[in-house]
């Protein structure tokens, strides 16, 4: 099978989406499939493990690491015709994703998509009142014009169904259990954070953009800091909001963007993982933290609801309720034995999101979509 992946950014490790895409690409190659990728942003040369086509683009004003492609499939049509893909996998309803969908329809090629990002929720963070309905219309148009859409969380799938988006299939993202692992815990890393290595470390990992509900996190942190000083707060990630966000969290340790072994060590060397975001379709960082032995405390909404077993493998807080999240974190700080038992349960729960089973399902979907496409073509011709 020949598979063409489309995503605006192909820098390995840039975010959860790219980590998932590279896992798909690696799995496709291991299974003997041929792969190419079309993108606005190429990775470093050593990460160009398959043929990649870069299309013209412009940088987003607030997030310059992300680029928006010019909507014209002539920028990649020649290379795609030469490759002759059996299926296209589109990973974002951005201009590049839209023109990939148009190309699939124009040239009668099966196309699937993954619903990675909950864009309808973003408008409320950028003073774009009234744009949420428009965004839903765009999402509906895009996803109803591909053969199948993979959704990583059942609550999100149900929400998409309510908005009349069809062809949905539940397919969670996975976590690399050999990479994100408690064995990466490091006393030296903890010494770099605090002289008291027994002090609990609370971790947040994300792009530093407002739609990750950074304001809620800052409020939670300050509620705790005003009451107690027996924990350390660590923030990993970067983004246009970092300067303002850092000023909102005096005393927290900001380590910047991390990837690879450095990120895995940070997860495993922390004790509690907090994630207040209400816009997640899955929350890959939450599963990575659980697989690393940290106890998650997240907003009870979206992808996290399908990951965490409340009171067993983690805790939930009410969405946008910083005081409630502070209370849940405080419970874990005050009850180290419960924290340890939840960490063990979180590790067990994370095993259920190992990549092998999920990737097998993905390639079964590919084959099913291609077979159905061929059947319908023959039926139409007949």
Structural summary, described in words:
The chain is α/β, with parallel strands linked by helices. The chain folds into two domains: 2-174 and 354-381, 3-Layer(aba) Sandwich (Rossmann fold), CATH 3.40.50; 182-351, Rossmann fold (3-Layer(aba) Sandwich). The chain is 40% helix and 16% strand. The strands form three sheets. Strands 3-2-1-6-7-8-9 form a seven-stranded parallel β-sheet, with helices on both faces. It has a six-stranded parallel β-sheet with strand order 12-11-10-13-14-15, with helices on both faces. The mean pLDDT is 93.
Any idea of the CATH class of the largest domain? Alpha Beta
What is the chain-wise order of helices and strands?
EHEEEEHEHEHEHEHEHEHEHEHEEHHH
Query: Residue share in helices?
Result: 40-55%
Mean pLDDT: 93
* Side-by-side strand order of the widest sheet: 3-2-1-6-7-8-9
Q: In one word, what is the shape? A: globular
What is the CATH architecture assignment of the largest domain? 3-Layer(aba) Sandwich
Instruction: Give the low-pLDDT segments.
Output: none
- Sheet with most strands: 7 strands, parallel
Secondary-structure class: alpha/beta
For CATH, the homologous superfamily of the largest domain is named as: Glycogen Phosphorylase B
Radius of gyration, whole Å: 21 Å
Note the total helix count. 13
What's the structural domain tally? 2
Task: Indicate the CATH topology of the largest domain.
Answer: Rossmann fold
Oligomeric grouping of the chains: single chain
């Amino acid at each position: 099978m020949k598979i063409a992946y489309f995503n605006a950014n192909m820098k390995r490790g840039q975010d959860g989406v790219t980590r998932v895409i590279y896992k798909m690409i690696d799995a496709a190659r291991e299974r003997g499939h041929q792969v190419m990728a079309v993108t606005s942003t190429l990775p470093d040369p050593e990460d160009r493990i398959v043929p990649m086509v870069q299309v013209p683009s412009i940088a987003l004003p607030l997030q310059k690491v992300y680029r928006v492609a010019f909507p014209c499939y002539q920028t990649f049509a020649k290379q795609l015709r030469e490759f002759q893909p059996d299926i296209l996998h589109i990973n974002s309803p951005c201009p590049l994703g839209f023109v990939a969908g148009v190309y699939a329809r124009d040239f009668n090629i099966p196309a699937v998509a993954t619903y990675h990002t909950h864009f309808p929720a973003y408008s409320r963070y950028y003073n774009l009142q009234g744009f949420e309905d428009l965004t839903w219309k765009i999402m509906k148009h895009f996803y109803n014009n591909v053969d199948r859409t993979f959704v990583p969380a059942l609550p999100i799938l149900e929400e998409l169904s309510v908005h009349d988006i069809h062809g949905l299939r539940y397919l969670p993202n996975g976590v690399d259990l050999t990479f994100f692992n408690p064995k990466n815990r490091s006393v030296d890393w903890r010494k770099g954070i605090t002289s008291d290595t027994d002090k609990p470390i609370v971790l947040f990992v994300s792009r530093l953009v407002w739609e990750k509900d950074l304001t809620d996190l800052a409020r939670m942190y300050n509620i705790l800091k005003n009451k107690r000083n027996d924990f350390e707060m660590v923030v990993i990630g970067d983004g246009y909001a970092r300067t303002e966000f850092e000023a909102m969290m005096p005393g927290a340790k900001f380590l910047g963007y991390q990837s690879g072994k450095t990120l895995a060590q940070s997860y495993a060397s922390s004790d509690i993982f907090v994630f207040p975001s209400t816009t997640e379709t899955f929350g890959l960082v939450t599963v990575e933290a659980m697989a690393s032995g940290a106890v998650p405390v997240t907003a009870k909404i979206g992808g996290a609801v399908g990951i965490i077993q409340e009171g067993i493998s983690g805790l939930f807080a009410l969405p946008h309720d910083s005081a409630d999240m502070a209370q849940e974190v405080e419970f874990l700080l005050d009850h180290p034995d419960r924290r340890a038992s939840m960490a063990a349960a979180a590790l067990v729960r994370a095993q259920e999101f190992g990549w092998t089973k999920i990737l097998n399902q993905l390639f079964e979907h590919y084959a099913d979509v291609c077979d159905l496409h061929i059947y319908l073509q023959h039926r139409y011709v007949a």
